[in-house]
Amino acid sequence: MKLIRFGDLNREKPGVELEDGKRLNVSSFTIDYNEDFFAEDGIQKLKEWLSSNHNSCSEIPSDIRLGSPLKRPSKLICIGLNYAKHAEESGMKPPQEPVLFFKATSAIVGPNDDLIIPKNSKKTDWEVELAVVIGKKTSYCSESEAMDAVAGYVLHNDYSEREFQLEREGQWVKGKSCDTFAPLGPYLVTKDEIKDPNNLNLWLKLNGKTMQDSNTSDFVFNIAEVVSYISQFMTLLPGDVISTGTPFGVGMGLKPQRYLRSGDVVELGIDGLGSSRQHVKAYEE
């Protein structure tokens, strides 16, 4: 099943996208795709409800804006340097254990919303990533238990301001959390529809030119390892998002380096998770 949220920013309603591409409004079933929805086995209950109620759901026009497919989660956790070739292009050795950092959830926007280059930014970069959505409260889980905690998957562009991230004092979070730096979607795909999340093609284009083209098989740490690892240090709550890192081909790794400019168009996608498109615009007072 594919979960979507649609409508104006901060006023989105829940919906689903069917196999034929038709989109249905399911706001009569649930208020939103939030922590309570996932904690109360909402995905399974929604499937059952749709089987007898889909004919009563209104169809969503194709031109309506899509928001993030889940309401702002309690946390958005990212994994750094989780592709072997990306670590190499960054001039770093693959880590011995997952590198964790947070991305502010205020950065989350819809899949096709504009990317706003932050004020005083010189090095805004792109990063196509597979993100995992947690389906139940989880702590201290083993790798063999980890996949039971997963609700589904979503496409994420982990935009990064490299000067803020790497050349300023402190942790990476400053370069990761600017407004619009976390477009999610177009939809959340439930885990039953993704046969092997550790073997998915993912790609990103800048102005029509392919910049990233890889596969999650290049993970340093796979999905189960990442979920289990994080759960040793914090409780994962229903609806939490884990972004699993980006493959090689980011602007920082190019020679010469290339960063985003106003007028650029970024397109990205992952097998089974759809695609998204962001127009790049400069910050305005």
TrEMBL record:
Q: Name one GO biological process term.
A: carboxylic acid metabolic process
Any GO MF annotation of the entry:
metal ion binding
Q: Which InterPro entries match?
A: FAH, Fumarylacetoacetase-like_C, Fumarylacetoacetase_C_sf
- What are the residue boundaries of the Fumarylacetoacetase-like C-terminal domain, all occurrences included? 75-280
* One Pfam family named in its UniProt record: FAA_hydrolase
Indicate whether Chloroplast appears among the record's keywords.
no
- Keyword Transcription regulation in the entry? The reply is no
| Keyword annotations of the record | Isomerase, Metal-binding
Q: Determine the domain of life of the protein's source.
A: Bacteria
Task: Give the family, as the similarity comment puts it.
Answer: Belongs to the FAH family.
**What protein am I looking at?**
2-hydroxyhepta-2,4-diene-1,7-dioate isomerase
Q: Which organism is it from?
A: Salinimicrobium marinum
Instruction: Tell me the classification of the organism that encodes this protein.
Output: Bacteria, Pseudomonadati, Bacteroidota, Flavobacteriia, Flavobacteriales
Designated gene of the protein? hpaG
